[in-house]
Design a protein that fits this description.
This protein is of the alpha/beta class and 378 residues long. It has 2 domains: 240 residues, 3-Layer(aba) Sandwich (Aspartate Aminotransferase, domain 2), CATH 3.40.640; 133 residues, Alpha-Beta Complex (Aspartate Aminotransferase, domain 1), CATH 3.90.1150. Helix content is 37%, strand content 15%. It is built from 14 helices and 12 strands. A 7-stranded mixed sheet has the order 1-7-6-5-4-2-3, with helices on both faces. Strands 8-9-12-11-10 form a 5-stranded mixed sheet, covered by helices on one side. Strand 5, helix 7 and strand 6 form a beta-alpha-beta unit. Helix 1 runs antiparallel to helix 2. It is globular. This is Cystathionine gamma-synthase. It comes from Dictyobacter kobayashii. Its cofactor is pyridoxal 5'-phosphate. Keywords: Pyridoxal phosphate.
Length: 378
């Protein structure tokens, strides 16, 4: 099946008991058993739920895998993947990454003497230089959050596998529609399904997809043991959102291109970050490993923090809020919102300044988005 067909049908056969076309919401915590071990595949909904199974199978199919797990949030999915590490292990990560991920690395993993080395996202050779004898995992975001740099997945996968290290790729910004990291050599793909996969800003969730069954089984054990799973209604909402993923992503990209071009010519904008622009330093890499450039645009505003505060108060169509990937346009100030957990000196050294704004371009009429940007920036 092609992508759009899988988004609608993978893991979602008509319900055998009723013929219902849409996957039912199995709103139950437990299941009747007929004698010792006499269950029908489900015992307790933390361990497994039919609605969640449909979601896990669908997301796995979109990443061209058989092994998917769903979680209560993107960070719950991250923590489950990180359960593969033990005290004394080391990992290598790109330096431009979501603030919540940095917080886990520096304030949770560090308690267990698990150290993280950070590498400039696009500096391929530096990942290998950062590897130590105890390095067990390489963690990538591509495009990165919020500066939208690209990491060469194929090249890093070759480095990781030569050193017998697992490669994890956070694919949230691209979605499986525009990028499929397992096909490029990654071992694990991570999603905050809150974002593009659900796409309607009405549910929080996460997912992990695996190339190898043994790694999948290890994380599945943690999923059940730690219990950070989505409920059946959250799973159902996410499944419903997935069905329109392809058409939404096409419109997100079309609008984002329009917005990026507009901002790149605006006198009050200093710099635009969008991999679809020929001026982007990773434009050629984006063309080679992505099927499109996504719906995220970041830009540096010419002015002060006080000017930024005035601008975000003026928006009428665009909403000033955290998160991304919904059908509506959202703009955020990473330094004080999504990346506020990263110390200021580290943020600024990585290029994340107080005048950076991150725009998740929605699927509204592009003219209305541009008009709103113009009046707010004026």
């Amino acid at each position: 099946m092609k992508f759009s067909t899988k988004a609608i049908h993978a893991g979602q056969e008509p319900d055998p008991s009723t013929g219902a076309i849409m996957t039912p919401i199995f709103q139950t915590s437990t299941y009747a058993q007929h004698g010792l071990g006499g269950h029908k595949g489900y015992e307790y909904s933390r361990s497994g739920n039919p609605t969640r199974t449909a979601l896990e199978d669908c997301i796995a199919a979109l990443e061209n895998s058989q092994y998917g797990l769903a979680f209560a949030s993107g960070l719950a999915a991250e923590q489950a993947i990180l359960s593969l590490l033990k005290t004394g292990d080391h990992m290598v990560s790109c330096d431009d990454l979501y603030g919540g991920t940095y917080r886990i690395f520096e304030r949770i993993l560090s308690r267990y003497q698990i150290e993280t080395s950070y590498v400039t996202a696009a500096s391929t050779a530096d990942y290998e230089k950062a590897i130590r004898p105890n390095t067990k995992l390489i963690w990538l975001e591509t495009p990165t959050n919020p500066l939208l740099r690209l990491v060469d997945i194929r090249a890093i996968a070759e480095i990781a596998h030569r050193h017998h290290i697992l490669l994890v790729v956070d694919n949230t910004f691209s979605s499986p529609y525009f990028q499929q990291p397992l096909e490029l050599g990654a071992d694990i793909v991570l999603h905050s399904t809150t974002k593009y996969i659900n796409g309607h800003s009405d549910v929080v969730g996460g997912a992990a997809v695996f190339k190898d069954k043994e790694v999948y089984e290890a994380v599945k054990f943690y999923q059940n043991a730690a219990g950070g799973v989505p409920g059946p209604f959250d799973s159902w909402l996410t499944l419903r959102g997935i069905k329109t993923l392809a058409v939404r992503m096409r419109q997100h990209e079309e609008n984002a291109f329009t917005v990026a071009r507009f901002l790149s010519e605006h006198p009050r904008v200093e710099k635009v970050y969008y991999p679809g622009l020929a001026s982007h330093p990773d434009h050629e890499l984006a063309k080679s490993q992505m099927k499109g450039f996504g719906g995220m645009v970041s830009f540096q505003f010419k002015g002060t923090l006080e000017d930024v505060d005035q601008i975000v108060r003026r928006f009428e169509v665009i909403t000033f809020a955290e998160s991304l990937g919904g059908i509506e346009s959202l703009i955020c100030h990473p330094a004080s919102m999504t990346h506020g957990s990263i110390p200021r000196e580290i943020r600024e050294a990585r290029g994340l300044t107080d005048t950076l704004l991150r725009l998740s371009v929605g699927i509204e009429d592009a003219e209305d988005i541009l008009r709103d940007l113009e009046q707010a920036l004026r």
